[in-house]
């Protein structure tokens, strides 16, 4: 499943970043995928910035610099936290829908085929019924990006061999969205319980992916 909403349009509540040097960026990417899945999120998007298809592996792209390659993959997951109904919208929708249907039937019975008088309340009723349904969703977006290159690994006093290392930036973002009738309502606040769930999921996600990073991380940033 693909999300039509772009990340640029989203306002993330939680943000976390770390830079590190690793021997296997693929292992970091797999840990990110596993963490999203372990937390019960559905994959909405697992891809690089210029790819049309999802990916299950981190892909290296050749760099103009000799013996180096770059990579950038994104894992996006979403989870339904709660569902509910707005009683005011629901009652209004039912009343308008019934009123519109009655007006149309009366108009047809009187020979007014168009039934114009009932169309407007009927349409409004359907709209109110649609937006009366509330769905609260949590979103986690993790990005693995950096550069891989060959470095000399010392084996003994006289022997050396080439080894692959990568400078990786790992970022995790999280937020909640409230949807009515399939449309996100930016002005609505999520229930307190849902807020606690996304906070716990975000903290656990950061903890899980940090465990695969070696000691000596160069930079870290956590905040809202």
Characterization of the model:
With about 220 residues, this protein is α+β, with helices and mostly antiparallel strands. It folds into 2 domains: about 10-85 and about 135-224; about 85-130. It has helices at about 25-40, 85-110, 115-130, 190-210; strands spanning about 15-20, 40-45, 60, 70-85, 135-155, 160-180, 185, 220-224. Strands 1, 2, 3, 4, 5, 6, 7 and 8 form an 8-stranded antiparallel beta sheet that branches. A hairpin with a 5-residue loop joins strand 3 (about 60) and strand 4. Helix 1 packs antiparallel against helix 4 and helix 2 packs antiparallel against helix 3. The longest helix is centred in the middle third of the chain and has 23 residues, at about 85-110. Mean pLDDT is about 80; it is low at about 1-10 and about 160.
């Amino acid at each position: 499943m693909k999300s039509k909403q772009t990340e640029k349009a989203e306002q993330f509540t939680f943000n976390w970043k770390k830079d590190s040097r690793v021997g296997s960026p693929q292992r970091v990417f797999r840990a990110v995928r596993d963490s999203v899945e372990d937390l019960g999120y559905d994959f909405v998007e697992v891809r690089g910035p210029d790819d049309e298809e999802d990916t299950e592996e981190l892909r290296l792209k050749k760099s103009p610099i000799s013996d180096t390659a770059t990579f950038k993959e994104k894992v996006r997951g979403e989870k339904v936290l709660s569902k509910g109904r707005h009683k005011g919208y629901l009652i209004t929708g039912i009343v308008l829908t019934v009123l519109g249907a009655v007006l149309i039937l009366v108009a047809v019975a009187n020979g007014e085929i168009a039934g114009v008088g009932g169309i407007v309340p009927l349409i409004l009723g359907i709209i109110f019924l649609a937006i009366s349904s509330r769905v609260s969703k949590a979103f986690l977006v993790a990005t693995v990006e950096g550069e891989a290159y060959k470095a000399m690994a010392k084996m003994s006093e006289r022997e050396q061999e080439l080894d692959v290392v990568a400078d990786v930036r790992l970022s995790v973002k999280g937020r909640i969205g409230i949807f009515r009738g399939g449309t996100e309502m930016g002005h609505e606040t999520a229930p307190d319980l849902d807020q606690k769930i996304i906070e716990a999921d975000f903290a656990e996600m950061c903890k899980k992916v940090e465990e695969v990073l070696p000691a000596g991380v160069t930079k870290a940033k956590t905040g809202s």
